[in-house]
Every structure is written in structure tokens, then in C-alpha cells.
Amino acid sequence: MRQKGPYAMEFARLAVPDVDATKSFLDEFVGLDPVEGNFDRVYMRAANDHHSIELIDAAPGADVADVAAIGYSVESEAVLDELRASVAGAGHDVHDLAEATAQWVTTGFGVDDPNGLRFEFFTEYSQFADVPFRLFRPNEVVHPFLGTPKWRETVDFFVDVLRFRPSDYIRDNVAFLRSENRYHHSLAIRKTEQFEVEHICFIMQNLDHVMRGRAKAIYADIPIASDLVNHSGSESIAFYMHDPAHGPRFELCDGHVLMSEEQHETHKPRQMSLDPRNIDIWRPVADDWAGF
Ligand SMILES: [Fe+2]
Fold it and tell me: Among 6, 25, 87, 112, which residue carries the largest CB count within 10 Å?
């Protein structure tokens, strides 16, 4: 039996200049629902999982949002213990979960990736019995997409230490990594000059909802950072909106491929050439990098 990795991305913690404004933005344009309750911060959920986004105050004077942490569930305490041991064995500091995470899970730990971004891993994420009573909402949050100058080190950290599994590469430029929920990727890492969380992706209920989300954004003059693309690796159709005050780009997608259990165990990652058509198969030419 191979050693297992994390199960699924569950949430991102965003530090934002104006929590109420971002709460309204995510409600209207991503379809997230505020979690009702007497909390010291705002949590927003897509479906039954406790929250997909946690909002905290940015440092005074900040006018753009920042990603403070990313959380992943792990399917059992045995797998969690193995991951914690792997992290410690590789010489990384093991941290306690943030209090804001610990109250919604059974147990877990935190670790900083090679770029200094905190990742949290935990078991038994709290669930709601039913989805929010609204039509326009995602099914789930599915991945963050990181850009980093420490590309190789970051990919090795997530593959060798945290046991994500490579689904596809675009040579030494992009790695698409999957976790045990078997989506094509629950983490992607691209080589860039500066570290950033480029986007956070939500799977919508269907393509109609992706297009309605796109129309809502366009009519409200929310910048569309990248319009409709057809992704080669994940086979999803998506667009990206971006208002830096509210977070990284938010990708709304439909059709992200789910591997079978057999594919998950046997899939050999492709090495795709560095060509924009390997990110968006609808691009008609090889040198069109604009708009990504
Ligand atoms: Fe994505």
C-alpha cells in the first residue's frame, strides 16, 4: 500500500482590507454563503463543508488582500500522523493549528511551505447537514494555484514530503498535483519571479452557473483577469475575475475531471510542452500568452 496524501482543499484564510466588503463580494460574485453564528470572524461556505473562505482583517493600511493560510482535510488520523512525521522528518517545523481552524476539526497541524505560506492539515472537518438554500453557489473549493521562484523546491515539498501526486507537468514550469479526492489537481504550482497565490478555484454546479457568474461580474465591472478558457489538464472550462481588494483571482469552473480509483493509482503524469494551448486548448496559436 502506498502512503496516502491529503484528501481535499477545504479553505483559504484571506486577510482583507475590508471584511464586510469582501463578504459582500464573495456572496454576490462567487456565490458563497456567510456561515451564521456568533464568531469572531467571517466564514463563508459553498456547500456542506464548514467554510471555504475565512476572512480576517489585513494589516492596517493594506489596500490589497493576502492569502494567510490554506487548509486541507486528511481522511484519517493514521494518514495525518504519517504526514506529520514526514514533515518533521524532512526538518520542517510542525505548528499547532490556528484556533480558528482547530474549533472546526478533530486534530491537525500546520507547516510553512518553502515560500512561507502556512498550510494546515486536519481530520474530520465540520459539516452542515444541508447546502445553503440558494441557487447560485459553488459545489466546492478545489485548488489554490501558486506562483513561485522556488518552483522545484516547492514541488518537491508537496510531492515528497506531503505526498501530493503529480497529475501533469508543463515541463519545468507548471506542476498539477492531486490529492486523495482524485480531482486532476487540488494544488498547482507555476514558476514565477515573485511568490504569489495566483488564484483560488471553485467548481460551480454546471456550465450555466459559470456563465451566469461571468455575466454578473462583467455587468458589475469586476475585472475579468482571464476570460473563458478550456483547460487541457483538468478538462475544465473556466473564467477568472480579480479585484485585488478581495483576494487573488477567483476561478469559477465546470467540468474539472475526476479520476477513477484505478486512474488515481496508475496515472503517469504527462510532460506537456510549454505552449499556451497546453493551458487553454481553445487558443489557436502557439505564441499567445496574453490574458493568462
Ligand atoms: Fe485553476
Answer: 6
